[in-house]
Amino acid sequence: MRVFTLIAGVAFARVAIAELGVSPAKVVIDSPESTVQVLVSDDSGDRTRAARYKTANPKVAVVSKIGRILPVGDGKTEIVIRDGAKSIKVPVEVKSYQQPVPISFEHQVVPIFSKAGCNSGGCHGKAEGQNGFKLSIFGFDAAFDFDALVKEGRGRRVVVSSPDDSLLLRKAAALVPHGGGAKIEKNGQWYRRIQRWISEGALLDNSPVLPAARIEVEPLDVILAPNKSQQLRVVAIDADGNRRCVTAESEFQSNATQIADVDHEGLIEVTGVPGEAAILVRYMGQVAVSRITLPQTNVAFKRPTENNFIDKHVWDKLKKLGIQPSEAANDATFMRRAYLDTIGTLPTATEARKFLSDTGADKRTRLIDELLKRDEYAVYWGMRWADILRVDRLQVTSQGAVAMTRWLRRQFEQNTPYDQFARQIVTASGDAQAESPAGFYKALKKPDAMGRSISQLLLGVRIECAQCH
User: Fold this and answer.
1) Domain parsing of the chain, residue ranges
2) Sheet holding 243-245: strands in order across?
3) Fold (CATH) for 4-94
4) Which of 76-80, 133-137, 409-413, 463-467 is the least confident region?
5) Residue 18's pLDDT is what?
6) Separation between Cα atoms, residue 120 and residue 407, nearest integer Å
7) How confident is the model at residue 180 (pLDDT cuts 50, 70, 90)?
8) What is the band of 8 on the pLDDT scale with cuts at 50, 70, 90?
9) Which residues contact 372 (CB under 8 A, 6 or more apart)?
10) Residue-level pLDDT at 459
11) Hey, is 274 helix, strand or coil?
12) Nearest to residue 380, comparing CAs of 336, 341, 424, 419?
């Protein structure tokens, strides 16, 4: 009998007769305000929202309609999950409910502010704050946030002697007028977590809870049919390897909402538009990505010939997406593209006739090798990179511009590996008029401009927003 199976890229415990899979196979909750998201699946895909849940002992734990388990008291029980005629049981243990470890402000309270949007740029996280109350953007400075809550506001924001009278809770739950509306539910998990933190003395940190060293999201990679859905589950792992579910506190964002969108609770819903989307998951500075593929249907994929190792990966991706590759370019088109992309010029009439009349099966490979050996290759790409690196004679002088352009040409002539090329640019020093990349730092004199340029140039990442916020 098979004990485990792989569904949608996630390992699930499997009972052969039940035909349902669930992750995690066993649930342990060690805090009164924690929750655990379960994923339910069968051979047809995700069934988390379609399944029905029942707790054997509601005095230990209960489970919501979306498959989220909430603790009620210490003890052991099991959750029975049914989907039609299929069923599976999940053992649940709740510990430290009556005597929990103290709440960590930084690792358990600040994530609530991030998920609720309180410390975003449109609310209390903006430069000037909101209505006299300012938090660090996205909770990056817990000590600053603690001071703003506990030491400012004339002591009204946090009332240790009467937690429910704290303005922090009353505003967040919209028990008094709040411009942002209700951010947490009164007596809900988040409300009770903040309430307990205040009742414990509202300390900056008096808890053994370790920060998240990384997060994992499941499923990591899933193929969905049109108009289907998939629930996500997020787990934070600390330096000691301890795991805790943080799905409720994680933030979710799709990079292609026209293909797949995701809601506040981590439910992905795909449209009928074929393609691929990445769901970005964030939790306390840690990031993970779940990749969603919605392939075209009824496509008979004809795999082209593989000419190099890159082709294999491209054909695999196109097959997964259900996209048939276009036909190979004819010799004339290939030749024109090769010349323009490699040396920046069109072939002469003689070169064109020679290539087109060649009957060798490897003539395209030979043409590429010949172009890479030509002087024009280093000249052309040296010029391209001179533009990218802002080799401006008005900034680096005419002598410096010539010297840096010569250095760039030499790198292409010597076929310098990209990592060495990048390292020489980043660590450049010396005379800006010598044959070196040092002139780059004369064109960009301010550190913030250098950081932006190097990040975008060498990493392909824009950091302008991060520099401001």
Assistant:
1) 4-94, 105-199, 212-294, 331-373, 376-468
2) 212-218, 233-238, 243-245
3) Immunoglobulin-like (2.60.40)
4) 463-467
5) 46
6) 45
7) confident
8) very low
9) 342
10) 82
11) coil
12) 341
CA 50 distance to own-chain centroid? 27
**Residue reference for tokens 């909402």:** 257
Identical fold at 4-94 and 212-294?
yes
Residue from 156, 113, 167 nearest 135 by CA? 113
Check if the beta carbon of residue 60 is closer than 8 Å to that of residue 76.
Answer: yes
- pLDDT of 12 reads 43
- Paired residues of 270 in beta bridges: 260
286-294 and 221-223 as β-strands: parallel, antiparallel, unpaired?
parallel
Q: Which of 13-17, 30-34, 202-206 has the highest mean pLDDT?
A: 30-34
Token pair for 205: 């940190």
Task: Give CA torsion, residues 349, 352, 357, 361, to 10 deg.
Answer: 170
Examine the pLDDT at 3 and tell me if it is beyond 90: no
- β-pair type (68-71, 36-37): antiparallel
pLDDT at 291 over 70: yes
Q: Which residues fall within 8 angstroms of residue 288, CB to CB, at 6 or more apart?
A: 214, 215, 216, 217, 234, 281
Residue 150 has pLDDT above 80, yes or no: yes
**Order of all β-strands in the sheet with 86-94:** 27-29, 86-94, 75-83, 52-55
CATH number corresponding to 212-294: 2.60.40.10
- Cis-peptide into 226, omega within 30 deg: no
Range in 6-15, 227-236, 331-340, 389-398 the model is least confident about: 6-15
Q: Which of 66, 62, 64 is nearest to 232 (CA)?
A: 66
Enclosing H/E stretch for 400: helix 393-413
